[in-house]
Amino acid sequence: MSKIIFLDVDGTLVDYENRLPESAVTAIRAARAKGHRVYLCTGRSRAEVYPNLWDIGLDGMIGGNGSYVEDHGHVVMHQLLTAEQCRRVVDWLHGRGLEFYLESNNGLFASEHFETAALPAALEYTKRKGGNTEGLTVRTMMPDMVYGGELYRDDVNKISFVLNSYQDHLDSAAAFPDLQPGTWGGKGETALFGDLGFKGITKAHAVHVLLEYLGADAADTIGFGDAKVDVPLLEACAFGVAMGNGGPEVKAAADYITDDVERDGLYKAFAHIGLL
Which pTM value belongs to this model? Predict the structure, then answer.
């Protein structure tokens, strides 16, 4: 029976220094050769899914934590912030002195001082995930970031911003009840970034949208993740796999815990489940 496999990217398919294990490529290609379908299911927008990932061979992707769904080049769903919502958030973040970037399928667009202001948070994020931070800069970690671009846009999936404190996240939720607030880079008050996206969007919702489009059964789904944001994905799938480098919440939601991403965890899980 062919399966539909959903893979988170950062910490699941690639490590926290953006390295793609050759064993993961081998596993995905072998699974697809057996008739299984493989989709990315990531917080990244499409502009952040670089050619080396598409070159593996994929059936499509879910991006923006569920705001975008693509199957074999066909856009199944794309939920965008309105131009007015984007303008209000940008003005609010500027007024509060918080640096940010706009996540669009057309690129990542940074605020005026994001490159310098985000470096401590970006380095801390990499360090918390076990990565080597030596010599890293925001430009090396986010190579396709656009600086000096238009910030009032109508093509934005979500907006991420550097948290000066957890209160910034709480206040963003209160200021924008029409948007979906979130945090990433750590649990609760240890979070490093906040984000605001389309209301009601989750990875789980996007999985259901794709399955309906494919005419497929949720009983044939397998989800892989490493973070709290992946818990809805694992719960939406019939079988959930947490990476060994994952956090306690995703491991508690998983049916199986594999090895770390850089220790061939993806390949080992594919072999354990019988996808190869």
Answer: 0.87
